[in-house]
Write a structure and sequence with these properties.
- The chain has 174 residues and is α+β, with helices and mostly antiparallel strands.
- It has helices at 2-15, 61-64, 68-71, 75-78, and strands spanning 45-47, 50-52, 119-120, 123-139, 142-143, 149-150, 153-169, 172-173.
- The protein has four helices and eight strands; from the N terminus they run αββαααββββββ.
- The strands form four sheets. Strands 1-2 form a two-stranded antiparallel ribbon. It has a two-stranded antiparallel sheet with strand order 3-8.
Length: 174
């Protein structure tokens, strides 16, 4: 099989004229594997019986267009800082160069107040409001603990009562 490939290579090289078209030659030798005989590979373009690389038909774009960096000057070199040009007092003695004045920076304290994370919402609560009054009540006669008789009479007696008063409790932090 190698001898057939060498023979095929020798025939192709001998049949191609030297010079102009010899740079684009690509020969694929297949040892009986993935492409059936008589069928051409799908990724190459052919001129006659010679397979060519499809990338070879277009010129290199880097050679087609010039480098724009060489056409235009560097903008950083065009706008020079005028303050940096004459820093030496010997070059211009009529300009007084002063040493930089120290700047004192006094920082102010910064206080941050974080919002409350836990807040109990407001709600209605109820409080007992006691009430009392005194009334005279008839007490019938009776024997006391010393076995003495006590006549019936009126005596003052206090009574307590009350009610629930609603009130609002505002929201507060936990």
């Amino acid at each position: 099989m190698k001898s057939v490939a060498v023979l095929l290579l020798a025939v192709l090289v001998a049949g191609i004229p030297g010079g102009a078209g010899a740079t684009g030659v690509k020969i694929t030798v297949n040892s009986g594997g993935d492409i059936p005989p008589g069928q051409l590979p799908q990724n190459a373009m052919f001129r006659g019986d010679i397979a060519r690389d499809p990338r070879q038909q277009y010129p290199d774009p880097r050679q087609q267009y010039p480098d724009p960096r060489q056409q235009y000057p560097d903008p950083r070199q065009q706008n020079l800082d005028r303050r940096q040009q004459n820093l030496d007092p010997r070059q211009q003695p009529n300009i007084v160069h002063r040493s930089p004045v120290p700047v004192v920076v006094i920082t102010q304290p910064v206080y941050l107040a974080a919002p409350q994370i836990c807040v109990v919402p407001g709600y209605w609560a109820y409080a007992w409001v006691p009430q009392s009054y005194v009334s005279n009540v008839w007490v019938p006669g009776y024997y006391n603990y010393d076995a003495l008789w006590v006549e019936g009479h009126y005596e003052p007696r206090g009574y307590t009562w009350g009610y629930y008063q609603p009130y609002w409790v505002p929201e507060r932090a936990c």
